[in-house]
Amino acid sequence: MTADPIIQTTALRRTFKGGGRGTKSEVVAVAGVDLSVAAGDIFGFLGPNGAGKTTTLRILATLLPPTSGSACVAGFDVAGEARQVRTRIGYVAQSGGSYRESTGREELVIQGRLFGMSKADSQARAAELLGALDLVDAADRTCGTYSGGMRRRLNIGIGMVHRPALLFLDEPTTGLDPQARARLWDEIRKLRDTGTTVFLTTHYLEEADALCDRLAIIDHGRIVAEGSPDELKRQIAGDVLTIGVNGNGEKVVALLSKQPFVREAGLEDGLVRLFVDRGEAAVPAVLRLLDAEGLAPSTMDLHRPSLDDVFLKKTGRSLRESAA
Amino acid sequence: MRTTRDTWLIYQRSLVLSLRNPVWVIMGILQPILYLLLFGPLLTNIARMPGFPPGGAFNVFVPGILVMTALFGAAFVGFGLCDEMREGVVERMLVTPTSRAAMLLGRSLRDVTLLLAQALIIVVLAIPFGLEINPGGVAVAFGMLALIGMMMSPVSYILALVLKSEDSLAPVVNGMALPLLLLSGVMLPMSLAPDWLQTVAKFNPLYHAVSAIRALFNANYGDGEIVVGLVVLVVLAVVTIALGARTFSRAAA
Questions:
Q1: Residue-level pLDDT at B57
Q2: Pair (A202, A253) in one structural domain
Q3: What is the 8-class DSSP label of residue A42?
Q4: B14 to chain A: which residues are within 8 Å by CB?
Q5: Residue B183 needs a FRET pair 20 to 30 A away by CA distance; which of A204, A303, B136, B209 works?
Q6: Which of B79, B96, B100 is the best substitution to test chain A (most A C-beta atoms within 10 A)?
Q7: Best residue of B3, B13, B14, B95 to probe chain A, by most A CBs closer than 10 Å
Q8: Which of A59-73, A123-137, B18-32, B119-133 has the lowest mean pLDDT?
Q9: Is A265 in the same domain as A125?
């Protein structure tokens, strides 16, 4: 990473006025985020709903001024030089961006025109993108007739019309079926291969793991961990053992957390989750201990640490639960 | 330069979309036509009453119907913007270098185009009922209708950007449009009203617009209301356009 980062934030903070009428309380959506994203990466922002992902993204995309702190995107300050930032980034909101009464081609052409392209250039670029995104047959149909996956591909195309160096995607695959999701992942990887930096938010662990080169895990407006998926998982040395105990969870946690081979024990959703040094040694030991107490496990699962385990370790909660 | 180009782009896009799904345009013209057919004939006898302004019944009534069409045509344009906001279109365009003023002007000019087309249809349909036309006056009257559109449509867009949903927008727009309509003398001339009501009406810009347009239809070019109406509408349109452009540039927040 010799080049300057394409996104650099310092103590980025955003608060909103509190919920109740007349109250002076504030809601802190982003609570001091320091972030550095290298050009050329697929960078993932992973966290549960309401963690501050979208707010951060909207600040970086010049849609929302930060309450304090600063953010530099593609070499320009998002607050003072919004216009320069806008010409260099693409942004695809969760709500989409294509209008159901417009055709895919119309949306791509007008977007190019709004970025200052000539009519001919814009039409050529639209045709190119329609081909690349496999939307040629649907090009002159209104977007309202598209499938979910087609509409997402079009929205990404709209964000790419002016060939931005950096593309923001807010929850790009939420609500898509697995096939359409895999398809979209391929498109996103292709963008990276052509040199575009992609910054996306997600609450899907699989997506963060499979797609992203680097990740920041965000919770309650703060970044709790940052690194490549492998780096993050390596932070949790050893294995994770999950045990179903038929409602005796607290008793089992109390029993096992005293054992020297258990680094940490917790109860999640009725399941006991143990972080252990060596899984293959822990399993028989745990079984012996439970047997001695007259307890029989209903399920047992030994696995390498996942991003969910990382999230649990950092926040004390499971992302699967929070995201549901 | 940028604003002119972007305004043209947004105007074209908006107009194409309106014509592709012309329900609103058709609904907008249905109501005035019903007034013309079912209410207009009532006026022929009332027109003989003392206090009724000069000119035939339809030369008094049609200007009111035109102002009503312009008012309602422009007051409800925010609904379309709510729809675009929900689909993320507005946000997507805010993350482009597009001129914020153009985002407003392109849409408002589309609204004016549509309401002038509606007005033209109404005028043509009213001729067989006895509307008398003098081209110069009607041309200026159409200019005033355009100004009403340019004044009201930004207000509707501002409300849409602030309130963000049709459900909140509907009562506010209704609450605003109805008193404006009743106090403008659209249905019956305000000259029939008691003094206090006439006084209140003078604070309504549309009252002056209606009076001015009636004078224009009747070729009373010396009527002072024409100048008053023009000045009031131009000033207010400039103010609402400026506020509207500002609201678009802050809509991101």
A1: 83
A2: no
A3: E
A4: none
A5: B136
A6: B96
A7: B95
A8: B18-32
A9: no
Contact A52, A221 (CB under 8 A): yes
Q: Most distant CA pair in chain B: distance in Å?
A: 60
Kindly state whether residues A95 and A130 are assigned to the same domain. yes
Residue A272 lies in a domain: yes
Residue B106 dihedral angles phi and psi, to the nearest 5° = -60, -45
* Confidence check: pLDDT of A228 > 80: yes
Give residue A116's domain range: 7-233
DSSP B37: I
In sequence order, the 6+-apart residues with CB closer than 8 A to the CB of A166 are A6, A7, A39, A73, A74, A88, A89, A90, A196, A197, A198, A199
If asked whether residues A215 and A249 sit together in one domain, one would say no
Q: Give yes or no: residues A244 and A122 share one domain.
A: no
Residues 6+ apart with CB under 8 A from A294: none
Angle made by CA atoms B111, B104, B145, in degrees to the nearest 5: 35
Taking an 8 Å cut-off on Cβ atoms, the answer to whether A61 and B96 are in contact is: no
Query: What pLDDT was estimated at residue A306?
Result: 85
Sequence letter at residue A134: D
CA distance A36 to A56: 13
Residues A278 and A175 in one domain: no
- A157 shares a domain with A290: no
CB pairs under 8 A between A and B: 70
